[in-house]
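So, is this right?
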Amino acid sequence: MDNKAVPSAWWPRLTDQAFLHNPYPELKRLADQGPIHHDPESGIYFVLSHSAFSRITKVSEMGRDPRCWAGGWAAPEYKQQDPVGYRLFSEFQPQMINNDGEDHLRMREVYKPAFRAQSMKALESMIQDETNRLIARFPRNTDFNFIDAFAGPLPLRVLCTLFDIPASMDDTISRWSDALIRIGDVLMSPEQKQDALDALTEFKAYLSERIAERKQQPGDTLIDMAIRAYDDETLDEQETLTNLVSMLVAGHETTVTLIGNGLLLLLQHPGEMQKLRRNRHLMRSAVEEFLRVEPGGNMILRVAKEDLQVEGHLIPAGAPVIGMVGAINRDPARFENPDEFDISRTSNAHLTFGSGPHVCIGAPLSRLEAQIAFSTLLDCFAQIESVGEPVWRLDRLNARGLSDLPIRVQGAAA
């Protein structure tokens, strides 16, 4: 039986400032209407159910290749209608997240060893050193913005160290990242597309130069992995460059939002912060709860390669599907007391990092950075206080994070 998906106009909602500030009440209202909604204007199916989207991420009828999107950027007419958008999306296409099947596996296998448990263990001292360096610069007994002082620079410096990129490039890479992260918004203005294309062009040119330099002094960084894969023809030149760009951008933003949103949750729930201070064995489950309750992304894209029935709803081949993470992670059919923030939650199958073949490859690194960051913050300071209203970034539809989190730290922890 084919139940009709709930018809609903989504783009006015997704661009509404009040929704971007706090999407959860509206997502709950919509989820109560049905698990799958269809936006007639865009043809996109929006999924709000944990069970439905979990299945969508795993079945062979669904993929992540945007070229399968009927009427999307790869459609013949799109190139004429939007030449800048066509060039941006086509040049951003050759990477693991935008490919399915054998091509996806071929690219993913190049970098998978860098994110295994043994590799993560080897990174702990480097991440700890970067964490200590930033915390040593915190002003004492005066207010400062935690995002600028810590949540933003820590992931960028960790990634640039992994890619052997000097600190002098931090501001430039942050600017490129700001422009490119908007590709995940799906809906982009002409100016944003041009800014993203310029950033992509400059980023690839820089990485080409860096690769040429690195070939003279080979090592064991992520760039060296890419060089070896290019030399043995596992990856072509554009796949090499675009995967590096994507990992730097996604790896940076994912962890900025995890650390910033996580501290906000602890400040809003002082009892949970005290619980974590007393019992550091809860750190792993606390990080998972940060990811569930305040995910750093609003949307996860999939595209139907074939017709698919999901919970009685037909999603036709060629249709784009967007999982609304804020609803999926608070689905009462999957999570007990889903709106409650509980760092000791043991059953926490959130989908913030996706699921299935395209689950985020860098998730282990993001988790490790957060665990080290919060352990060190609690070790160093007896008090971490909120001293003003947090400010959400409202210029992005997908990446959900703070621009300002004013805090004050005091005293050494006992």
